[in-house]
Amino acid sequence: MAIREGFFFHPPTGKYAPPGNRTLSKHGLVSFKVRGVAFYSATQADTSPGLPARLVREPSNEHDPNAIAIWALNRSGQAVKVGYVNRGRARSLAKRMDAGEVVEAYFMRGDRPGSSTSGPPAVILTTGDRMVKLLSDADG
Q1: Do 9 and 108 contact (CB within 8 A), yes or no?
Q2: Alpha helices (H) along the chain
Q3: Which segments of 1-140 are extended strands (E)?
Q4: DSSP label at 34?
Protein backbone atom coordinates (compact mmCIF):
# COMPACT_ATOMS: atom_id res chain seq x y z
CA MET A 1 0.00 0.00 0.00
CA ALA A 2 1.20 3.51 -0.80
CA ILE A 3 -0.08 7.07 -0.93
CA ARG A 4 -0.14 8.68 -4.36
CA GLU A 5 -1.77 12.02 -5.17
CA GLY A 6 -3.56 12.02 -1.80
CA PHE A 7 -5.18 8.62 -2.25
CA PHE A 8 -4.22 5.14 -1.14
CA PHE A 9 -2.68 3.24 -4.02
CA HIS A 10 -2.14 -0.50 -4.35
CA PRO A 11 0.83 -0.82 -6.76
CA PRO A 12 0.28 -4.47 -7.77
CA THR A 13 -3.30 -3.83 -8.94
CA GLY A 14 -3.08 -0.13 -9.78
CA LYS A 15 -6.26 0.53 -7.78
CA TYR A 16 -6.90 3.69 -5.76
CA ALA A 17 -8.95 4.13 -2.58
CA PRO A 18 -10.04 7.44 -1.04
CA PRO A 19 -9.32 8.56 2.53
CA GLY A 20 -11.83 6.98 4.88
CA ASN A 21 -12.14 3.74 2.91
CA ARG A 22 -13.10 1.16 5.54
CA THR A 23 -11.45 -1.80 3.82
CA LEU A 24 -8.06 -0.20 4.50
CA SER A 25 -8.44 -0.89 8.22
CA LYS A 26 -7.28 -4.47 7.58
CA HIS A 27 -3.92 -2.88 6.68
CA GLY A 28 -4.00 -0.85 9.89
CA LEU A 29 -4.68 2.36 7.97
CA VAL A 30 -7.08 4.91 9.43
CA SER A 31 -7.69 8.04 7.42
CA PHE A 32 -10.31 10.74 7.02
CA LYS A 33 -11.02 14.08 5.40
CA VAL A 34 -10.64 17.21 7.50
CA ARG A 35 -14.08 18.68 8.21
CA GLY A 36 -15.00 22.36 8.36
CA VAL A 37 -12.06 23.65 6.33
CA ALA A 38 -14.16 26.51 4.90
CA PHE A 39 -14.49 27.99 8.39
CA TYR A 40 -10.80 27.88 9.31
CA SER A 41 -7.38 28.72 7.89
CA ALA A 42 -6.87 25.61 5.78
CA THR A 43 -5.69 27.56 2.73
CA GLN A 44 -3.17 29.46 4.87
CA ALA A 45 -1.63 26.28 6.29
CA ASP A 46 0.81 23.83 4.78
CA THR A 47 -1.13 20.58 4.57
CA SER A 48 1.23 18.96 2.07
CA PRO A 49 1.36 15.15 2.13
CA GLY A 50 3.76 13.84 4.74
CA LEU A 51 3.64 16.87 7.04
CA PRO A 52 2.49 16.38 10.64
CA ALA A 53 -1.08 17.22 11.57
CA ARG A 54 -1.48 18.18 15.22
CA LEU A 55 -4.61 16.79 16.86
CA VAL A 56 -5.90 18.85 19.79
CA ARG A 57 -8.74 17.74 22.05
CA GLU A 58 -11.43 20.34 22.75
CA PRO A 59 -13.52 18.77 25.54
CA SER A 60 -15.19 22.11 26.27
CA ASN A 61 -16.30 22.58 22.65
CA GLU A 62 -19.92 23.78 22.77
CA HIS A 63 -20.96 21.68 19.76
CA ASP A 64 -19.26 18.38 20.61
CA PRO A 65 -17.52 17.34 23.85
CA ASN A 66 -15.48 14.82 21.80
CA ALA A 67 -14.23 17.48 19.38
CA ILE A 68 -10.70 17.16 18.05
CA ALA A 69 -9.25 20.11 16.14
CA ILE A 70 -6.62 19.64 13.44
CA TRP A 71 -3.78 22.14 13.31
CA ALA A 72 -0.96 22.74 10.82
CA LEU A 73 1.78 25.32 10.37
CA ASN A 74 1.47 28.38 8.14
CA ARG A 75 4.28 30.06 6.15
CA SER A 76 5.50 31.85 9.28
CA GLY A 77 5.71 28.61 11.24
CA GLN A 78 2.69 29.48 13.38
CA ALA A 79 0.09 26.85 14.17
CA VAL A 80 -3.33 27.48 12.61
CA LYS A 81 -6.53 25.49 12.94
CA VAL A 82 -7.51 23.91 9.63
CA GLY A 83 -10.63 22.03 10.73
CA TYR A 84 -11.87 19.07 12.74
CA VAL A 85 -12.00 15.30 12.88
CA ASN A 86 -15.52 14.19 11.89
CA ARG A 87 -17.91 13.55 14.78
CA GLY A 88 -18.05 9.75 14.45
CA ARG A 89 -14.29 9.27 14.30
CA ALA A 90 -13.74 11.88 17.04
CA ARG A 91 -15.84 9.89 19.51
CA SER A 92 -13.52 6.86 19.49
CA LEU A 93 -10.35 8.89 19.01
CA ALA A 94 -11.19 11.20 21.94
CA LYS A 95 -11.39 8.18 24.27
CA ARG A 96 -7.91 7.10 23.22
CA MET A 97 -6.47 10.59 23.60
CA ASP A 98 -8.19 11.15 26.95
CA ALA A 99 -6.64 7.88 28.19
CA GLY A 100 -3.21 9.37 27.47
CA GLU A 101 -2.45 7.68 24.16
CA VAL A 102 -0.25 9.73 21.86
CA VAL A 103 -1.86 9.70 18.42
CA GLU A 104 0.39 10.57 15.50
CA ALA A 105 -1.28 12.10 12.45
CA TYR A 106 0.02 13.27 9.08
CA PHE A 107 -1.52 14.93 6.09
CA MET A 108 -1.94 12.51 3.21
CA ARG A 109 -3.64 15.05 0.94
CA GLY A 110 -3.40 18.81 1.00
CA ASP A 111 -1.60 21.83 -0.39
CA ARG A 112 1.04 24.41 0.29
CA PRO A 113 -0.18 27.71 1.82
CA GLY A 114 -2.26 29.80 -0.58
CA SER A 115 -3.15 26.89 -2.85
CA SER A 116 -6.28 24.74 -2.90
CA THR A 117 -5.90 22.41 -5.87
CA SER A 118 -6.08 19.06 -4.04
CA GLY A 119 -9.51 19.45 -2.47
CA PRO A 120 -10.05 19.24 1.29
CA PRO A 121 -7.04 18.02 3.27
CA ALA A 122 -7.03 14.43 4.46
CA VAL A 123 -5.23 12.97 7.46
CA ILE A 124 -3.86 9.52 8.23
CA LEU A 125 -3.20 8.16 11.71
CA THR A 126 0.18 6.46 11.57
CA THR A 127 3.78 6.72 12.70
CA GLY A 128 6.29 8.99 11.02
CA ASP A 129 8.30 6.01 9.76
CA ARG A 130 5.26 4.39 8.20
CA MET A 131 4.22 7.69 6.59
CA VAL A 132 7.63 8.01 4.94
CA LYS A 133 7.28 4.44 3.65
CA LEU A 134 3.74 5.02 2.33
CA LEU A 135 4.91 8.08 0.41
CA SER A 136 8.10 6.48 -0.91
CA ASP A 137 6.35 3.26 -2.01
CA ALA A 138 4.20 5.36 -4.37
CA ASP A 139 7.31 6.25 -6.37
CA GLY A 140 8.53 2.70 -6.87
Answers
A1: no
A2: 87-98, 128-137
A3: 2-4, 7-10, 15-17, 30-33, 54-57, 68-73, 79-84, 105-109, 122-125
A4: P
What backbone phi and psi angles, to 5 degrees, belong to 71?
Answer: -120, 150
Q: What is the pLDDT of residues 1-31, one digit of tens each?
A: 788 888 888 788 888 888 777 777 777 888 9
- pTM summary value: 0.88
Contact predicate 31/108, CB 8 Å? yes
Per the CB < 8 A criterion, the answer to whether 112 and 72 are in contact is: no
CA atoms of 74 and 113, how far apart (whole Å): 7
Count the residues in the chain.
140
Cα distance between residue 54 and residue 67, in whole Å = 13
State what percent of residues in the chain have pLDDT above 90. Answer: 51
